[in-house]
Amino acid sequence: MTHDDAAHTHHEAPERHAAPMVEEVTDFEVLEIALRELAIEKGLFTAEDHRHYTEFVEQIGPAPGSRLVAKAWVDPDYKQLVLRDPIAASREVGIDWLHPTGFGTPSDFTALEVLENTPSLHHVIVCTLCSCYPRPLLGNSPEWYRTPNYRRRIVRWPRQVLGEFGLFLPDDVEIRVEDSNSKRRFLVLPVRPAGTEDWTEEQLAEIVTRDCMIGVALPKPGVTANSPRPVHPAVRPAEGY
């Protein structure tokens, strides 16, 4: 191979681009990082505080809420406390509603209301503004709870949306949609299902899923996890989504 051939071959070799070191950072991630670093710089909390809180958020789940509901089903006096003073009742299942993390500043969740379902009344919760949710009792909200299609449609067509979750209520059952906000959160107390009269509190807690306490499902013997949500087009989608 002559020098010219080698030069020509080298010239035609395909370019090689190095793979990016990290995935692209979104605008929201940039905003979160900037806000977090500014708060640490101003002394609102420390990096260690942030680490502790992140670990706390990642490990919480719906178990406290499930225990609260199960205890209310078997203990009439506790049920009255749940409906009268749910913040006090939450302490009995290990959750300090006003100081849920056990460190840092007090929570801004200053009000909690438990909504009792009956055979003729069914509650479902939503946050039409964003994603306000009773995290100390239920953990982090599911993705569908935060979507505009759920937030906008559940208040207008509750029966249709509940039907999309597989929950079909009789026409004579009234549906009430409660709108959470930054200061007021809700938890649904479902009707205890038939066939569980001799169950222990621990057995009952297993069938009280997160979706039951949001109001998009009913507790059923044998069902101990949230059902997978099929993806399908909404009949009346929120415009633009």
UniProtKB/TrEMBL annotation:
Documented EC number(s): 3.5.5.8
Residues that, per the record, bind Fe(3+): C127, C130, S131, C132
Domain Nitrile hydratase alpha/Thiocyanate hydrolase gamma: start-end pairs: 27-217
GO molecular function, one term: thiocyanate hydrolase activity
Keywords assigned by UniProt, alphabetized: Hydrolase, Iron, Metal-binding
Comp. bias regions, Basic and acidic residues: 1-18
UniProt superkingdom: Bacteria
Region (Disordered): 1-20
Uppermost EC category: hydrolase
Gene3D superfamilies reported for this sequence: Nitrile hydratase alpha /Thiocyanate hydrolase gamma
Family: Belongs to the nitrile hydratase subunit alpha family.
Name listed for the protein in its UniProt record: Thiocyanate hydrolase subunit gamma
The gene coding this protein: scnC
